[in-house]
Every structure is written in structure tokens, then in C-alpha cells.
Design a protein that fits this description.
The complex is a heterodimer of chains A (157) and B (828).
Chain A lengths: L1 H18 L5 E5 L3 E7 L7 E4 L9 E9 L7 E9 L2 E12 L2 E2 L11 E9 L8 E11 L4 E11 L1
Antiparallel strand pairs in A: 1-2, 2-10, 3-4, 4-8, 5-6, 5-9, 6-7, 9-10
Chain B lengths: L1 H16 L10 E4 L3 E3 L18 E3 L7 E2 L12 E3 L7 E2 L12 E3 L7 E2 L12 E3 L21 E3 L22 E3 L7 E2 L14 E3 L7 E2 L8 E8 L5 H10 L4 E8 L22 E8 L8 H5 L7 E5 L17 E5 L19 E5 L17 E3 L6 E5 L12 E3 L5 E4 L11 E3 L4 E3 L15 E3 L6 E2 L13 E3 L4 E2 L16 E3 L21 E3 L21 E3 L10 H4 L8 E3 L5 E2 L5 H9 L12 E3 L13 H30 L1 H8 L11 E6 L5 H14 L6 E2 L1 H4 L6 H11 L1 E8 L1 H5 L1 H17 L4 E5 L5 H6 L1 H9 L3 E2 L4 H16 L4 H7 L1
Parallel strand pairs in B: 2-3, 3-5, 4-6, 5-7, 6-8, 7-9, 9-10, 10-11, 11-13, 12-14, 13-15, 15-16, 16-17, 17-18, 18-19, 19-20, 20-21, 21-23, 22-24, 23-25, 24-26, 25-27, 27-29, 28-30, 29-31, 31-32, 32-33, 33-34, 35-36, 37-38, 37-39, 39-40, 40-41
Antiparallel strand pairs in B: 1-2
Helix pairs in contact in B: 10-12
Protein name (chain B): Toll-like receptor 4
Organism (chain B): Sarcophilus harrisii (Tasmanian devil)
Family (chain B): Belongs to the Toll-like receptor family.
Chain lengths: 157, 828
């Protein structure tokens, strides 16, 4: 009986933690570059894709991004942390939406509203050296509530 | 056994399933009885365990599906109800009946298909209604006509295709904000806005509607506080026509433009804005247009009467040929493409009081600015490299009160702000400042009230850095350095200072003198330094201190006694993030913390770092009782030791008294008159009389000695006396050995008899006292005595205090040996 119960108890204890891990999605895949992402927001997963996986990434990348907002975003900030070999090699914070400076059409959207963005993003074009890179990306609002959190893996062949 | 395991399993399952959001049926209590957060808890109906006194209820992200009549009637005190994305498809009549205090109702993201005509009935105080992304198609059928208290109505992200406002909008006299962004409105036709004609306080947001046509004159007589038209026009031709159609409109704030991420219209020609000549505008914003006409005169031609002009992310590199703006009060350029400051002739801008040119990443050079009436100049967040700052050569603006040069590259402070005597606020934070350690650079700024030099890489060496700032009330200088990491006496003339921020300055020491003149200081931030400790007395001159932030230093504890005097004026303090040493030595400090817990309500918890058993434990759990117990134990043990020592001393001192009292000696059958018979040479009689007799017969216990000069019966032979009186009647024999003793024949005789006596009575009865050192050769003459002295213990007379004390104790002890009880009683 005991032998039968032990794995059962272990399963019950461990299962909630399994369910909070979201599956890893592929944003784009090419011969030379692969982009994988996994949501690290315990509340929800999100959808994201990149049209072409070029290496070096072209300056205007077409992306699609869909999410349901859990909080208002009168202000929105993006934190990016780039890791290589488990070490943070680059970290960057960028204000996406500011009260007096709402550049994007989704700024000011409300909790419960769906955002679907399909369009270009500008990014500096640079070649990605061979290897595996991890990017921790977090969007948060003015009250520091997480809007989106993603672990992105970039594999360059 | 199996039953127990099953029960444990059920309990753990319920417990751990609560960790999984969405499966646990209980809400987060934000404020007891006031605010409950039930976001994503998988409720299919309104939870029953929420108290009816709740004022704010968040039920968002629960699959409620439909709302029945009077679903919330229990919550009569409810003010804010959030039902975002609850998959509500149907709202029945009188759903919100009873919510007579509700001011905000949020229904964002619900696919509403069916709305009862009385769906929003019973909401007499509703001020804000959010129905964003709710499948709303038309305003005509939206049953909100009775909500006359509405102030904000959000109808964005729906499929409303007509702006035709129902007549009930005429009764919304308090309506201030009508948001219709991201709908399908494609024209503004006759009579659409007629119901709001009387409302002069309304802001209308029509952004992201594909407007094709505005009927000319339709806005005539309409007065709006704000009109937002971003991302509306898909071509410049449409825009031109629509703006022409706005003729006759009176608007306080008009926002035109686009979004960075949306479709960008091309061919922005200056004539597009020609229609604005017929529009009465007070404040004009142009935000993220795709283009800017080469003819800037044409662009501004119809905007000359505005008093506020904002140009945000406009592709504008130079500004030439500006028309005259007679009323322009405030001019703002944000994130345009300037590389040098635009030339702004004062003739074109005679009334300009505020100029902001910010967020230009390529703007590196400062050109001279001559705007005599300017009072506010904001040049923050550019990449300016100012080689000589600041004097009237840079800015000929002698009325300037506010100057913001923060977040630029480098500023060389080589001039002492001559001509800026009216300056009240100066912000230089996050620039590389240079030159201010050489001379009192702020000397002429006698009216300055606010100075920010945070994170300017300032290495304070010069004590008179703030000389002249006699009216300064707020000083921020976080993230700088001090010589030797010791705060210097730089605040001596800042007697008006109210707030001071010296956080992140690597400070290790704050000398008492530095705070001496800051009597008006109310807010002090010394967080994120390396202070190990400081004497709270340094804050004594701060009579008005209300807020003190000492968080994230290396403080282990503070002098609690002196903190008491601080708490009289304090309103808030923060000591979190310090490595507190939670030992009893610092008990007073931790007690102070506990007593003044109301001061810490804004700070993070204070955590112990040492000792190891207290690591990561809250300071508030520090146990006073433990320290008190420890103290008591120490005091008690000291007392006990003292008592024992005292008792021992007493026992020692009154040993013989005690012996008498206890009567511990056993009864011995025989009785004797004397305690001891003393054998001595008559030469030593003086010693016997003065010392031996006096000490033994008059001391405690008293002994009866047999002395020949006193106790021998006259008329009896000496030998008979010796035997009869001496040996027969005495228990012991004391032999006083000296030079004279050895030479005396009588003594020899007495001693020999004593020896025989001892042999006959077979008990140790002879006590030898060596009165003086006797030479060995002399002693050897008395062979027997010599042998005996070598074998037996004898007493030696020593004429020192300690020696005498020991001698008498030993002798008394020896004499007591073999004494009977009765004798003792008699002696008492």
C-alpha cells in the first residue's frame, strides 16, 4: 500500500508546479536561426511569431503578438536581459508607453482588453554569432505588475 | 492506516490546488471588509463569502457567463466593481439594482450579446462606465440614458459605426470624457453631436476610427475641452477635407497625428491644416505625423492663435520662417530631429513663457537663446554638451525661474549663473557636471529653492559648493561622492532646507557638525550608503524632521536611548535593508522600533542578520523577555555567589563559635580541669602572659590553661605540682620551644614527663610551639625532642598579622580536639 501511495503523493505535490510552466513555442525557425520562447508569467501564456528568421536580423522585422491584458497599461516598460553561458551580458530598459508620450496605439489599453499587434518593429541589425543565447524579456506597467514575461532562446547555427 | 493516508492526501490536494491560480475558491483580502480581489478564481457566480460592506470588488477573469437580476444587491456599499473578461454574454434587467453607491463599473472584454433594457438600472451614483471591447455595435440601443451622473464613458474597441449620439447625452451634464477610440465610425454627419452642444467640459476621443468625411459646419457651435484624432485619416486628401469640415469648432485641446506602429500617411503638405484657420484652438498637439511639410510657415499658419503648442515625434530638423504667435505661452518639442537648438526669434514668440525641447538624441549643441519673457526652460533628455554654463551669453532670459538641463551629456559649470538671479528651480541631474568644485558656482542664485544634482558624478571636495543658496528648500544630490566618504560641512548656510537627499553616496560617516544649521529640515534621505552606525544625536538640531530614510546601510543597531528624542516630530522612518545585530546589547533600539511601529508603515520589514539563530527573522520578533530573563539570571547568580562567599567568610570567621553551637564534638568520658598545661621556660613568660594567655583564655572559645606561676599549689613540691596539677588535670600539653627552653632543666624534666604521659594515655596530647628558630646544633642536644620535632607537626610563632592569625586558628583547633561537650558549654 505504502509503495503505491508514495508516487501518488509526490504527483499531487508536484503537479501544480508543472501546470504553471507553459510550453515552449517556436517563434520562427530557419536553417541558420531558431527562436523559441516560453512565458514566465505564472498567470498566462501568449502568442508571438516572427515572419522571417534571418541572420543577421533585418532592420524591420515583421512580428505578430497577441495577449490579453491583466492590468491597465497607461504606462508600459520593457526590461531586456541577455544571458550567455548563464551570465548576464546585456541589460536594457526601454519605456514603451509614457503618459505624455504615447507613441503606440496600444498605450492606454485597459485590463481585460486584447492586444493583437501585427507589424514591423525597428531593431538595429547585427549578426548573431554561433551559439545559444537566452533573453529574459519582461513588460511591466507603472505599478510594476507584469504584463508579459518571456524566456526567449535564440539558437544560431 | 489507509484511511489516514487518504485523508492526508485529500488535505494536501486541497492545499496545493490553491497554489494553482484559477482553481481555488477564495478571494484575496486587500483591505479587510473593504477591498477583495477575486481575479481569475474560476468563479461561475458571485462568491457568497464576500462581506456586504465591501467597497471594491474585483471579479475579473472569472467565467460568470451571465448576470442574473440583483446579483449584487447584497453589496450596498460597493463603489468599484470590476467584471473585466468574465465571458458575460447576457446582462439581465436589474442586475445592478441595489448598488446605490457604485461609482465605477468595468465590463471590459465581455462578449455581450444580450442587454436588458433595464440592465443598468439602480446605479444612481455611477460616474465611470467602461464597456471597452464588448461587441457594442450601436449607441442607439445602449440602455444608459438614465445614468445622468456619468462623468467618464469608455466605449472604445467596439464596432460602433455611427457617431450619432442618442438624445439622452443631452442630460449627461457631468460627462467629461467620451472615449470612442478604435470603432468603425467613418463620418461625422449633421446632428451627430447635437446632444452635447451644451456640454462645455467634454473631451472626445475618436482615435483610430477610419474617418472619411466630416460634414462641413457640423461642428459649428460645438465647444469641446478636448478632441483627439490620432490614426484617423488614411490619406492626406481625406485629412485635408475632414479638417476643413471642422470649421466653426471651438476646442481647448486638439490632438492630431498618428501612431508609431500604425499605418503612416504620406505626403504631408502644409495646406492639409488650412482648415484649422476656421477652428478656435487653445492648445494644439501634433503627435507622430509621418512627415512634416518643408514649408513650416504654411504648417503653422493656421495655428498662430494657439497658446500651447506640442510637437511630439515630428520629423523636424530645422525651424525657419516662423510666423508670429502673439498668444503662444508654451512651446514643446519632444523627440523631433533637432541636432542644434532651433532658432526661436523673440519677435515671433513675444508671449512665450515656457519652452521645452526634450528627448532629442542627436541634439548636442546649445545655441544662444534670446527670449526675454521666458520663465521656464526645459532642455532635458537631450545629448547636450555644454562647454560653458551658464550665463546670460547662453540664455538671455533674465526672467527665467525654472531651468531643467537634466539627462544630458556633459555640463561644464564655468560661469556662476550671472543674470539668473530670478531662478527658483535648477535641475542638473544625470549629467556629467564639471567645474563646481573650484568656486562657489551657485553664488548668485539667492532665490533658488530647488536644486537637483543627483548622479552628476560630483566628487564633493569644496566646502563652499552651496554658498549663496540661502533660500534653498529642496536639495537632491543622490549618487555622488564625498572626500573620504565622510559628509563634509557643506550645508552650513542652507538654513531654509526642507528636504535633503544624500542617498547612494557611499557615505561611511556623518559628523555631527554637518546637520547643525538644518533646523527647518523635514525630509532626510540617507539610504543606500555604507553607514555602519551613527549617533542619533546628530539629528537633534533637526527640530522639524518628519521623514527619515536610513534604509540599505550597514547599520547593526542604533543608540536607542537617543532615538527617543527623535520620535516626537517623526511621522515616518525606514530602517529596512540593514544587517541588524539582534543581541540583547541593542535591546533598547529594538524596543524603540516596536514602540514606534506606526512610523515604519511604509518601510519594508526590518530583518536580523546576526546572530545566526536570528538570521532572516524580523526585528519585531526580537524577544525582550529573553534578555530580561538573561539579565535576571546573571544578577541572581552574582547575588548567590556573593551570599555563598559571605557565608563562607562568616563560617571562617566564626568557625569556633559555630563549633560550640553545633556541639559536634563527641562526648569523651574523662573530665579535666584544664584544657592545656603549658611547659615553657621562665624566660619566655612574657610571651606566655601577653600572647598565649590573653588569646586563649579571653578569646572565643576560651580555654583554661594551667600555668605554673598561677595554678601550682604552693607548699607542694614542684615535681608533684607538675604531675598533680599539670598533667593529671590537663587534656593537652603545650610545649613552648625556644632557646631558653632547651637550656632549662625544669623544662626538660616537664617535657620528658609529658612524653611519658602521652605514651601512657595513648592519645596525641602534646602541641609544640616553636617560639623562635632554634639552631640545629642546639636542638640536637635534646635528641628525643629533635627526633620528635622532625616527625611531628608543630606550630611556629610568626610575628606578622597573617602569621598570628593562622597560628591562633591552628592552635585553637588543636586544643578543641578531644574537648567534651560539657566543657564547651562551660566555656560558653
Amino acid at each position: 500500500m505504502k509503495i503505491f501511495m508514495t508516487p501518488l503523493v509526490a504527483l499531487v505535490l508536484l503537479c501544480p508546479s508543472c501546470s504553471s510552466k507553459w510550453t515552449t513555442h517556436t517563434a520562427c525557425k530557419d536553417d541558420k536561426l531558431e527562436l523559441l520562447y516560453q512565458s514566465c508569467d505564472p498567470l498566462q501564456d501568449f502568442g508571438f511569431s516572427v515572419d522571417h528568421c534571418n541572420n543577421p536580423l533585418s532592420e524591420n522585422v515583421n512580428i505578430r503578438f497577441g495577449i490579453i491584458l491583466r492590468y491597465d497599461i497607461n504606462e508600459l516598460f520593457l526590461d531586456i536581459n541577455l544571458f550567455s553561458m548563464q551570465k548576464s551580458i546585456f541589460s536594457f530598459s526601454y519605456p514603451v508607453c509614457e503618459v505624455d508620450f504615447p507613441k503606440f496605439s496600444f498605450c492606454g489599453r485597459k485590463k481585460g482588453e486584447k492586444i493583437y499587434y501585427a507589424g514591423k518593429i525597428h531593431n538595429p541589425s547585427f549578426p548573431i554569432g554561433k551559439g545559444e543565447y537566452h533573453i529574459l524579456l519582461r513588460l511591466h506597467n507603472e505599478n510594476n505588475f507584469t504584463i508579459t514575461c518571456a524566456n526567449i532562446t535564440v539558437i544560431s547555427y | 492506516m489507509v484511511r489516514w493516508i487518504a485523508m492526508a492526501l485529500i488535505i494536501t490536494t486541497t492545499f496545493f490546488s490553491c497554489l494553482d491560480p484559477g482553481s481555488c475558491h477564495s478571494c484575496l483580502e486587500v483591505f479587510p471588509d473593504i477591498e477583495y480581489q477575486c481575479m481569475a478564481r474560476n468563479f461561475s457566480e458571485v462568491p457568497v463569502d464576500i462581506p456586504s460592506s465591501t467597497q471594491k470588488l474585483d471579479l475579473s477573469f472569472n467565467p460568470l457567463k451571465s448576470l442574473a437580476s440583483r446579483s449584487f444587491s447584497r453589496f450596498t456599499g460597493l463603489r468599484i466593481l470590476d467584471l473585466s473578461r468574465c465571458d458575460i454574454q447576457k446582462i439581465e434587467d436589474d442586475t445592478y439594482q441595489g448598488l446605490c453607491n457604485l461609482s465605477t463599473l468595468i465590463l471590459t472584454g465581455n462578449p455581450i450579446q444580450s442587454l436588458g433594457l433595464r440592465a443598468f438600472h439602480g446605479l444612481p451614483k455611477l460616474q465611470k462606465l467602461v464597456v471597452v471591447e464588448t461587441n457594442l455595435v450601436s449607441l442607439k440601443d445602449f440602455p444608459i440614458g438614465h445614468l445622468m451622473t456619468l462623468q467618464e464613458l469608455y466605449l472604445g474597441h467596439n464596432s460602433i459605426s455611427s457617431l450619432k449620439l442618442p438624445h439622452y447625452f443631452a442630460s449627461f451634464s457631468s460627462l467629461q470624457h467620451l472615449d470612442l477610440h478604435l470603432n468603425l465610425i467613418n463620418n461625422i454627419s449633421d446632428g451627430d453631436l447635437e446632444p452635447i452642444k451644451m456640454n462645455l467640459n467634454l473631451t472626445l476621443d475618436l482615435s483610430q476610427n477610419p474617418i472619411q468625411y466630416i460634414h462641413p459646419g457640423v461642428l459649428k457651435g460645438i465647444h469641446l475641452t478636448g478632441l483627439i484624432l490620432r490614426g484617423n485619416f488614411h490619406s492626406s486628401a481625406v485629412m485635408e477635407v475632414c479638417i476643413k469640415g471642422m470649421t466653426g469648432l471651438q476646442v481647448n485641446k486638439l490632438v492630431l497625428g498618428n501612431y508609431k506602429n500604425e499605418f503612416q500617411m504620406t505626403n504631408f503638405e502644409s495646406k492639409i491644416l488650412d482648415g484649422l484657420c476656421q477652428v478656435d484652438i487653445d492648445e494644439f498637439w501634433m503627435v507622430v505625423p509621418s512627415d512634416f511639410p518643408s514649408d513650416s510657415y504654411g504648417f503653422f499658419r493656421c495655428l498662430v492663435n494657439v497658446s500651447v503648442l506640442h510637437m511630439v515625434t515630428v520629423p523636424l530638423e530645422v525651424l525657419t520662417n516662423l510666423p508670429v504667435f502673439p498668444k503662444l505661452f508654451s512651446l514643446v518639442f519632444t523627440n523631433c530631429k533637432f541636432e542644434t537648438l532651433p532658432t526661436l526669434p523673440s519677435t515671433s514668440l513675444p508671449s512665450l513663457k515656457e519652452l521645452r525641447i526634450t528627448r532629442h538624441k542627436d541634439l548636442t549643441t546649445l545655441s544662444d537663446l534670446k527670449l526675454p519673457s521666458l520663465e521656464l526652460l526645459d532642455l532635458s533628455q537631450n545629448a547636450l554638451n555644454i562647454l560653458s554654463c551658464c550665463s546670460y551669453n547662453n540664455f538671455d532670459t533674465d526672467k527665467l525661474k525654472y531651468l531643467n538641463l537634466s539627462y544630458n551629456a556633459q555640463i561644464m559649470l564655468s560661469k556662476n549663473f550671472m543674470g539668473f538671479e530670478n531662478l527658483e528651480s535648477l535641475d542638473l541631474q544625470h549629467c556629467q557636471l564639471k567645474g563646481h568644485n573650484n568656486f562657489p558656482v551657485f553664488l548668485s542664485l539667492t532665490k533658488l529653492q530647488y536644486l537637483d544634482i543627483s548622479y552628476t558624478n560630483t566628487h564633493v571636495q569644496f566646502e563652499n559648493i552651496f554658498a549663496g543658496l540661502s533660500n534653498l528648500r529642496h536639495l537632491k544630490m543622490a549618487g555622488n561622492f564625498f572626500q573620504g566618504n565622510i559628509l563634509q560641512d557643506i550645508f552650513k548656510n542652507l538654513s531654509q532646507l526642507v528636504t535633503l537627499n544624500i542617498s547612494y553616496c557611499h557615505l561611511e560617516k556623518i559628523p555631527q557638525i554637518t546637520m547643525k544649521s538644518l533646523h527647518q529640515l523635514q525630509v532626510l534621505d540617507i539610504s543606500h550608503n555604507n553607514l555602519q552606525t551613527f549617533e542619533p544625536l546628530i539629528f537633534r538640531p533637526l527640530w522639524n524632521l518628519q521623514v527619515l530614510n536610513c534604509s540599505y546601510n550597514s547599520i547593526t543597531a542604533l543608540d536607542g536611548q537617543n532615538l527617543q528624542s527623535l520620535s516626537e516630530t517623526l511621522v515616518s522612518t525606514d530602517f529596512s535593508g540593514n544587517p541588524f545585530d539582534c543581541v540583547c546589547d541593542h535591546q533598547i533600539f529594538f524596543q524603540w522600533v516596536k514602540e514606534n511601529i506606526q512610523l515604519l508603515n511604509r518601510s519594508k520589514p526590518m530583518i536580523c542578520q546576526t546572530p545566526s539563530h536570528m538570521k532572516d527573522v524580523s526585528v519585531l520578533l526580537f524577544d525582550d523577555l529573553y534578555c530580561q530573563m538573561k539579565k535576571t539570571i546573571i544578577a541572581m547568580s552574582i547575588l548567590a555567589i556573593m551570599l555563598v562567599l559571605m557565608a563562607l567568610a562568616l563560617v571562617y570567621k566564626f568557625y569556633f563559635h559555630l563549633m560550640l553551637l553545633a556541639g559536634c564534638k563527641k562526648m569523651v568520658g574523662e573530665e579535666s580541669t584544664y584544657d592545656a598545661f603549658v611547659i615553657y621556660s621562665s624566660q619566655d613568660e612574657e610571651w606566655v602572659r601577653k600572647e598565649l594567655v590573653k588569646n586563649l583564655e579571653e578569646g572565643v572559645p576560651s580555654f583554661q590553661l594551667c600555668l605554673h606561676y598561677r595554678d601550682f599549689i604552693p607548699g607542694v613540691a614542684i615535681a608533684a605540682n607538675i604531675i598533680q596539677e599539670g598533667f593529671h588535670k590537663s587534656r593537652k600539653v603545650i610545649v613552648v620551644i625556644s632557646k631558653h627552653f632547651i637550656q632549662s632543666r625544669w623544662c626538660k624534666f616537664e617535657y620528658e614527663i609529658a612524653q611519658t604521659w602521652q605514651f601512657l594515655s595513648s592519645h596525641a596530647g602534646i602541641i609544640f610551639i616553636m617560639l623562635q628558630k632554634v639552631e640545629k646544633s642546639l636542638l640536637r642536644q635534646q635528641v628525643e625532642l629533635y627526633r620528635l620535632l622532625r616527625r611531628n607537626t608543630y606550630l611556629e610563632w610568626e610575628n606578622t598579622n597573617l602569621g598570628r592569625h593562622v597560628f591562633w586558628r591552628r592552635l585553637r583547633k588543636a586544643l578543641l580536639d578531644g574537648r567534651t561537650k560539657r566543657q564547651k558549654e562551660a566555656a560558653e
